[in-house]
Amino acid sequence: MKTAACFVYFLFVTAMSYTQSEPNYDESKVPKFRVPDPLTTFAGEGIGSSAEWEEKRRPELYAFFEGQVYGKVPGTLEEFSFKLLEEDDNAFGGKAKRKQVAISLKKNNRSLSFNILLYLPKGSTDAPIFLGYNFHGNHTVTTDPKVFITQAWNRNSDDLGIRDNTATEASRGARKNRWAIEKMLDAGYGLATIYYGEVDPDKNDFSDGLHSLFYREGQQRPKPNEWGSIAAWAFGLSRAMDYLENDVNISKVIVFGHSRLGKAALWAGATDKRFSGVISNDSGCGGAALSKRKFGETVGQINRSFPHWFCDSFQQYNENEKTLPVDQHQLLALMAPRPLYVASALKDEWADPRGEFLSAHYASPVYALYGKEGIVAPQMPRIDQAIHKTLAYHIRTGEHDVTDYDWENYIAWAKAFVE
Ligand code: GTR
Fold this sequence. Notes:
globular; 28% helix; 9 helices; alpha/beta; binds beta-D-galactopyranuronic acid; nine-stranded mixed β-sheet
């Protein structure tokens, strides 16, 4: 190698080892940063009322997250339809009505279809519903033998017996521990769930999934400020909402998601005010956690590992969080005044539990504008001591997961706060 080339290579390797350094898990190494004020506009104007928030501040924050973080949806659908595939009035040992419905979307002569699995408490005509994506197929959330096995591309998993990117009977019920369906039904709540891979396969490939319906002639991937996968998943949740509004008599829909699907639930809550409540379970970086703390997963790290999740414009903040004019507490504030629950797990350091908590705390002044209570004290609550307010928070014992403890809290909070 010539000397100059050697030098450039050396610089490159040094830069790479710097940018891809080990994640920080040491609180004393969290950089000092200014938390962008949700109640001061980009032009420096103070916001003193919910009317000013809605008129001036919410729209500019929304526009930033839309154009620079998750990406814009480029247009509208031409056709939306749904078809009942199967139903049973005596599911779950007689506790529930089950429905499986195919939702079809069409644009530019291309179409996409995904299935929604619905359990409604038997006899109830307008039950509130939790709506959330699952990671490996509707058949994984329950052992119910009637639930269809997804045909869509699936991430291989030894634990779940998924090989060749195809789900089989082996994974039926494999994730039922994450979905306390019986507890929901007993409390008078329904569940609607969708396999997220049917809306957009979770891989860095924009040839398939929802994006491809919206391409103009010759286009092969979204433009830099157009939607990544999280925004596509959020869009799918809104289409599920369209279906629910049209077909079942619902009083309210609470959108829920874990981890990457918690990021999608938050963006869905921000983009679609029809959701009566929003739950972020361990959503971490690009979800509830503050980016500027750079604790656990960072913006650069997430954009390199999952280049398809956010819009390409978001990459300018890789290793450059300090120049971000917003942070994730302002995404949380976009839900106000609707009830929002942010939950963390003690051993989920990658998702930065403290960053998720502080985000809820810093979003709370926006809730206060509406006379709603959030996380007022800046100290984290004790482990397993949930704070139930309109903006709620808990940190529970254990790992990155969804547990019965989480669901018991979501149900109790929904009963008290989701009107
Ligand atoms: C991780 C990713 C996180 C989180 C998680 C998940 O690999 O770094 O941001 O989304 O996946 O979705 O399980």
